[in-house]
């Protein structure tokens, strides 16, 4: 029963999201607790997990280009459809860019990593890292360039470069690569500390995700919210499956990681970008909320497909 096995993987993930939502909704903790937990996940827990994995793992003996094309070509198609639809509905360049970003920006950290680890274990870690390493730079660069087309000056581009260079997740990945290339070994004390912190990444990320759901809204722009959600949860993973399995014939672990990332709901970065540029906030927040709720069902199907592929 592949669907029941998949549900056994998906249920604990979204149960933790529900717990985070309930704790914040019932005000059992203050709003600063959710913010603090989210910062801990992004600044310490996920970076510790990625550094530990990259610095100690064997580098993949595979050309990553087909893996990247599989994921990002599908992402580009979803982004282009959403951007085009928003423009057809009379949205300006800035808002259309944010709508496209919402359709392509997956919640790779808070949902994707826990889901891949739960489904595939350690064999899914390196394929996931290959996507994470360039996911944020690519999507943030594209949305910033699209928004900057209608703005004067290059301050936003300089700000983008600064944020990427100092982003904790990217710093952790490339620090791990340099650590490994330098031939350095990890002392026992450091290894134990990294393990303790890394083991908290998945549960804390999911609870923080649930807490953040209280900040988003379904209000307004229903058609675009439904379109973005459909593109993100259905078209993106279907396109990745077709490209990864039938076009590029990727190894199951690599195709599986790409499919699970593609099946993730819209990431919170969509709301953060919308809030920063004061445009498309209702669409971004509504897409995050709706896609996260419906992902319980769509990700169960995606996990079932990936588990079948891995047999």
How do the helices and strands line up, and which of them pair or pack?
Elements: H1 2-25, H2 31-56, H3 64-88, H4 93-104, H5 108-120, H6 125-148, H7 155-165, H8 168-181, H9 188-198, H10 201-212, H11 222-247, H12 252-262, H13 269-277, H14 281-310
Helix pairs in contact: 1-5, 1-10, 1-14, 2-8, 2-9, 2-10, 3-4, 3-6, 3-11, 3-12, 4-6, 4-11, 4-13, 4-14, 5-10, 5-12, 6-7, 6-12, 11-12, 11-14, 12-14, 13-14
Polypeptide structure, described:
The protein is mainly alpha-helical and 311 residues long. The protein has a single domain, classed as Na+/H+ antiporter like fold (Up-down Bundle). Helices cover 80% and strands 0% of the residues. It has 14 helices and no strands. The protein starts with a helix and ends with a helix. The mean pLDDT is 84.
Keywords, separated by commas or semicolons:
311 residues, mainly alpha, Na+/H+ antiporter like fold
Condensed summary:
This protein is an all-alpha fold and 311 residues long. It is built from 14 helices and no strands.
CATH architecture: Up-down Bundle
Which CATH first-tier class would you pick? Mainly Alpha
**Residue-averaged pLDDT:** 84
**Cα-to-Cα separation, first versus last residue:** 13 Å
Count of domains: 1
Based on CA inertia axes, which overall geometry fits? globular
By secondary-structure content and strand pairing, the structural class works out as mainly alpha
Q: Bin the helical content.
A: over 70%
Number of helices: 14
User: Strand tally, please?
Assistant: 0
Listing every helix as H and every strand as E from the N terminus to the C terminus, the arrangement reads HHHHHHHHHHHHHH
Uncertain spans, ≥5 residues at pLDDT below 50? Answer: none
Beta-strand content: under 5%
What fold name goes in the CATH topology slot?
Na+/H+ antiporter like fold
- Roughly how many Å is the radius of gyration? 19 Å
Describe the sheet with the most strands.
none
């Amino acid at each position: 029963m592949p669907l029941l096995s998949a549900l056994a993987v998906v249920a604990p993930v979204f149960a933790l999201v529900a717990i985070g939502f309930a704790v914040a909704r019932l005000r059992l903790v203050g709003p600063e607790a959710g913010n603090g937990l989210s910062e801990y996940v992004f600044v310490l827990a996920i970076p510790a997990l990625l550094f530990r994995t990259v610095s100690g793992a064997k580098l993949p003996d595979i050309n990553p280009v087909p893996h990247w094309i599989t994921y990002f070509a599908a992402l580009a198609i979803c982004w282009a459809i959403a951007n085009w639809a928003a423009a057809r509905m009379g949205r300006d360049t800035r808002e259309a860019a944010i709508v496209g970003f919402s359709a392509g920006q997956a919640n790779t950290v808070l949902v994707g990593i826990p889901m891949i680890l739960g489904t595939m274990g350690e064999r899914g870690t390196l394929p996931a890292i290959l996507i994470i390493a360039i996911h944020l730079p690519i999507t943030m660069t594209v949305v910033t360039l699209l928004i900057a087309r209608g703005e004067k000056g290059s301050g936003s581009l300089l700000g983008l470069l600064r944020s990427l260079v100092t982003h904790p997740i990217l710093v952790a990945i490339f620090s791990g690569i340099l650590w490994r290339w330098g031939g350095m070994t990890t002392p026992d004390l450091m290894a134990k500390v990294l393990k303790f912190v890394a083991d908290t990444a998945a549960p804390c990320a999911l609870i923080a995700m649930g807490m953040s759901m209280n900040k988003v809204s379904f209000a307004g722009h229903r058609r675009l919210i439904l379109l973005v959600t459909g593109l993100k949860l259905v078209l993106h993973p279907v396109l990745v499956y077709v490209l990864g399995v039938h076009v590029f014939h990727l190894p199951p672990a690599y195709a599986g990681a790409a499919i699970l990332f593609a099946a993730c709901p819209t990431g919170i970065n969509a709301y953060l970008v919308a809030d920063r540029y004061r445009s498309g906030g209702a669409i971004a927040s509504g897409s995050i909320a709706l896609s996260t709720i419906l992902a319980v069902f769509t990700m169960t199907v995606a996990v079932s497909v990936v588990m079948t592929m891995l047999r």
